[in-house]
Structures are given as C-alpha cells and as structure tokens.
Amino acid sequence: MQFYYGQQMPLRILDEAEFWKLQEEEHTVVIREALNDLEKVYVEALKEWEKSLSNTHKTVVSYVESVVRSGYVYVQLQRQVIQLITFCLEESEQFIELCRQIKDNSSAAKDKPIAQTILDHIIRESEYFIGIARLILFGKENVQK
User: Fold this and answer.
1) CB 13 within 8 A of CB 83
2) What is the predicted pLDDT for the residue at 144?
3) Measured between alpha carbons, how far is residue 73 from residues 16, 52, 133 in Å?
4) How far apart are CA 47 and CA 39, in angstroms?
5) What is the rounded CA–CA span in Å between residue 107 and residue 74?
6) 53 and 25 Cβ atoms separated by less than 8 Å
7) In which residue ranges of the chain is pLDDT below 50?
C-alpha cells in the first residue's frame, strides 16, 4: 500500500468506502422505487443487498472510529483495513453485476430509457469507487481497467 497521505492513508480510503457503501445501499432503494414493476426476484435480491451494504457500511464506520482513536495505525490495523477495502471493492463488483443483470434481463428496465439511465448511473458510481480503491490500494502503476 502506498501511503501518499502518510499516516492518514487508512482514513482516506475508509472515508471513501464509508461514503460509497452508503451510496450503494441507497441505490438499492432507488432501483426498487424507480422500477416499480421490477420482478420479485430482483426486488428480493436488492433487499438482501441493502442489508449487506448496510452491514459493510457499519463495519467501515467502526474501522474509522478505531483508526481515529488509535492515533497511530499499527501494522495489524493496516492489514485489516486493506482486507476490508479489498472486500468492499469485490462487493461493489458483485453489486455492479446485479445492476447489469437487472438492466439486461428485467422487463422493468430492458426497454425503458429512464431505467437504463438510472442503472448506468449507479453502475458508473460503483465503478468510480472501485477505481479509487484500486488506486489507493495498489498505486497508479498497478491499476488495471
């Protein structure tokens, strides 16, 4: 992990994760509300995702509190932060996959431009977080698209 922000690097990435996990959690609601005729299988999947993303968000917040309270980021805590952010990144990739499935397969989204636009926007936002996470975790030279 490259520490462009010195001792503050764990807080930098945790701050990003905290913001984007909350966004993704809210996006599950946006999709359900905007696509009011969404198939039950997708509604249920989105409700499960809402719970999972909420739990991840809470975990990230607890890590922020730990880093702030410690005043110094110990090697063990750095490793845990890296593992958590790696999980967040992978979770976002899986969330994007669900959004793409809805976009491509749901009759509530397939032929409706506004639904496509909403889903594309949500996908782009999660991709943005993934890009930030990769950049901070792996450094510019190792980021792959």
Assistant:
1) no
2) 46
3) 18, 27, 19
4) 13
5) 50
6) yes
7) 1-4, 140-145
The Cα-based distances of 101 to 67, 110, 116, 133 in angstroms read 37, 10, 11, 24
From the list 92, 113, 102, the residue with the least C-alpha distance to 42 is 102
* Reported pTM: 0.87
Tokens 């977080």 identify what position? Answer: 129
Tokens encoding 80: 């845990």
Residues 6+ apart with CB under 8 A from 136: 1, 2, 4, 9, 12, 13, 16, 85
Tokens linked to 126: 């999660």
Whether the CB-CB separation of 77 and 70 falls below 8 Å is answered with yes
Spatial distance between the Cα atoms of 98 and 72, rounded to a whole number of angstroms: 38
Residue with tokens 């905290």: 18
Token pair of 11 as six digits: 């807080």
Which residue reads 């503050």 in tokens?
Answer: 8
Ordered domains of the chain (ranges, CATH): 6-138 (1.20.120)
Residues near 141 by Cβ (< 8 Å), separated by ≥ 6?
Answer: none
